Structure formats: C-alpha cells, structure tokens
From TrEMBL:
Species this protein is from: Paractinoplanes ovalisporus
Domain Acyl-CoA dehydrogenase C-terminal: start-end pairs: 230-361
Domain (Acyl-CoA oxidase/dehydrogenase middle) ranges: 117-202
InterPro entries: Acyl-CoA_dehydrogenase (IPR050741), Acyl-CoA_DH_C (IPR013107), Acyl-CoA_Oxase/DH_mid-dom (IPR006091), Acyl-CoA_Oxase/DH_mid-dom_sf (IPR046373), AcylCo_DH-like_C (IPR036250), AcylCoA_DH/ox_N_sf (IPR037069), AcylCoA_DH/oxidase_NM_dom_sf (IPR009100)
Protein name per UniProt: Acyl-CoA dehydrogenase family protein
Keywords: Flavoprotein, Oxidoreductase
Lineage: superkingdom: Bacteria
PANTHER family the record matches: FLAVIN-DEPENDENT MONOOXYGENASE, OXYGENASE SUBUNIT HSAA (PTHR48083:SF19), MEDIUM-CHAIN SPECIFIC ACYL-COA DEHYDROGENASE, MITOCHONDRIAL-RELATED (PTHR48083)
C-alpha cells in the first residue's frame, strides 16, 4: 500500500478503504461514485506526480484504487495520462494546466470518434472541429468512450483546428454547449462515464489550445502509459478477487459430504484455490510495476527510442499474460464460493465483467501477435495509440 501524502488528514489507505467498503453498495443501487471521486479530488489524488511520486509509486496507487473500486480507478486514467504527457516534455506554456491539477482539478478526454477510420492511428482526421465564426471560435462535434468525463472539471479535446490541422484544446466541462451523457451500456465498468460527450458550438479561444498535432504527438510509444494503466486496474481487481475468495472460505459454515475436510477453512482444495488466486494477483502486480519502472526510465529520457521500446514491450507482455489469468481467476472465484457465491446481492460477477471490459479495450490477441513478431524477427512494435 502506498504512503504518498495527500492534503486531507488521514492516509490514502483510510480513504481507499472507505471507497472499497461501499463498492458493492454502489453496484447494488446503480450509484455512480460522484462522492468518492470528490473525496479523492479534495485529497489531491490527481496531483501525485506533481507532489514527487515516481511512476512506480503512481502505479502502486492505481492498483490500490483498482482493488477498492475499478470504476473509480479507471475514471482517473485520462487525467493521469494528460498530466504525464505534460511532464514528459515540459513547456512553460503548460504550467497553467499543471496549476489547475495542483488546485485539485481533474481532466477528462474527448478523443475517440466512431467511423471507418483505423483506431489509434497517429494521423487521424477528426469530424469534431473548431471553426471561425463572426462571434469567435466555436467547437462542434461528438466523442465516444469518454471515460471519466462525468467527473472531470476540464476536458482535453482532439479536433480539427480552424486551419485544418489537428489541435488539442482544453475546455471546462461546464462551459455552455458541453454535454456529457451517462449513456455507457457496457457489461462492466458501469460507472466510468465511458459514454458520449457532445460539443454544440462551444465557444473557445486560442488560450484553450494546448498544442497542434494529434493527441499522441511525436513522442515514441506515448500510448504505453494508458495501456499499462488498464492492466494496473486489472491487477487491483485480482487483489480484490483473492481477498473475496479468502473471505468466502472463512465464512463457510457447511461443505459437501465428499469434501476433503469437514471444515472448509481446512479443506486443501479450497486452500489451493485461494493460493492460486493470491499468487495470480501477486504476479500481475509484479508485472505491472516492472513495466512501470521501465516506463519511468523512458519518461525521464523523453525521446530515447530504446527505453521507450523496452517499456512498451514489457507493458504488452504484461497485458497478454495478465488478461488471460485474470479472467480465469475471476471465474474460479465461484468454485471457491459454491452456490452462495452466485447470489446477485454479492455482486461477485462484477469482477469478471470489469476485467472483461477493461481487457477488451485492446484485445490481447493483437498484442501477442506484435510481441511474437518482434521476438522472432525484430519487427517494430506498433507506435500509435492502443499499444
């Protein structure tokens, strides 16, 4: 558990324990974590890197958040990615955005558009556009998969600029014409706000523009951070799976007549199952933190291609292995719990649904193929989004 300082009294551990204790209740009552994310904002959780946390420490915190509530953890992904992008290649003009982060604000992202374009390519052309009008610049368009925007104070928007070139700009989430809808209908990660964000002739100015070019810029393997983030959240879920499995065994009062022991807690079959789940969680966390260490070195070197490649490769390998083992572990949890584990009120199915949803962002089959091609013949890894 991390010990990174926050502004509010108490520790990160206490705050995450409070969030984790009410996760099932939110699932039961279909309640988005507005209150929980507000507490994290007040604690300064979004400015960890600005307070001196290393990337490894940040990913330790992400895993902790994933264990407490993967919806909350995933909702902060685009915020941390934006901050990391600013830190990786610092510019004086970006201090105003970092000052907003220091003040406790959270940033969301409006980048993805539906259509026939290949997802993740660097040279994207956006339908969302900034145009010049007699009343000034106006932003119009629709974005999808807007994870975290329900809880964000500012939105980072990828659009075509008034001169036809891609631009990135930041607009307040409450600016007139901005609409963040709660229309995400995924089987998991139900409270991440991963739905639609609409911009209806939103007034913007030149001061809102972060920079020109695509969302990934020209840095090598810039998408490694958000990809590793997803695996970190899954690692956190696996911790919760292991904890829930141990709790199910401890709470059992009866067993099968043909079980290996009369006492469930002393049953070697159940002990083995819980041991497997705990070991899977450990290996997932270790893989994430090893990749995070490589990513930290690459980020410090900014443009070093070899370090960036090493971080991307470790991140891809971690995803391929963790996704498969995590789905298996979330299913095996029900063998530990038996019939009582499938009761809807327990909401243990949320673990599998959340893992399946997170893993589907970028299917591991494509990752495994790219890793295999690299290992066999040195074929370069994809260097755009989603890798």
């Amino acid at each position: 558990m991390t010990t990174i300082p926050v502004r509010r009294p108490g520790s990160v551990h206490d705050l995450l324990a409070r969030i984790g204790a009410t996760a099932v209740e939110r699932e039961e009552h279909d309640r988005p974590p507005y209150e929980e994310i507000a507490l994290l904002k007040q604690a300064g959780i979004g400015a960890l890197r600005l307070h001196g946390a290393t990337l490894v420490e940040l990913f330790e915190t992400i895993i902790d958040l994933g264990q407490a509530d993967p919806n909350v953890a995933h909702s902060l992904r685009n915020h941390y990615a934006f901050v990391e992008n600013l830190l990786r290649r610092p510019r004086p003009q970006d201090e105003k955005w970092l000052d907003l982060v220091r003040a406790g604000n959270l940033f969301g992202l409006a980048a993805t558009e539906l259509g026939n374009e290949k997802a993740g390519r660097r040279d994207q052309i956006f339908r969302t556009a900034v145009t010049r009008t007699p009343d000034g610049l106006r932003l119009t368009g629709e974005k999808y998969y807007s994870t975290g925007n329900l809880y964000a104070d500012f939105l980072v928007v990828a659009a075509q600029g008034p001169d036809g070139e891609p631009v990135r700009l930041v607009v307040p989430a409450d600016r007139p014409g901005v609409l963040v809808e709660r229309d995400w209908d995924g089987i998991g990660q139900r409270f991440t706000g991963s739905g639609t964000t609409r911009f209806d002739t939103v007034p913007v100015t030149e001061d809102d523009i972060v920079g020109t070019g695509t969302i990934y810029g020209d840095l090598p393997y810039l998408a490694t951070f958000p990809q590793l983030y997803l695996t970190a959240v899954i690692a956190g879920i696996l911790r919760r799976v292991a904890r829930d499995a141990a709790g199910l065994v401890r709470g059992k009062r009866r067993t099968f007549y043909h079980a290996a022991a009369d006492d469930p807690a002393g049953d070697p079959i159940l002990q083995q199952s819980v041991g497997y789940l705990a070991s899977t969680a450990y290996v997932a966390e270790a893989a994430v933190l090893r990749a995070a260490a490589a990513l930290g070195e690459a980020s410090a070197a900014s443009d070093d291609q070899e370090l960036a490649l090493r971080a991307a490769l470790r991140t891809a390998k971690a995803k391929v292995a963790v996704d498969e083992q995590a789905l298996r572990a979330a299913a095996e949890l029900f063998d530990v719990g038996g019939g009582s584990a499938v009761r809807r009120v327990a909401h243990l199915d949320r673990h599998w649904r959340n893992i399946r949803t997170l893993a589907s962002h970028n299917p591991r089959t494509y990752k495994a193929r790219a890793v295999g091609a690299y290992e066999i013949s040195g074929t370069p890894l994809p260097n755009g989004g989603f890798f």
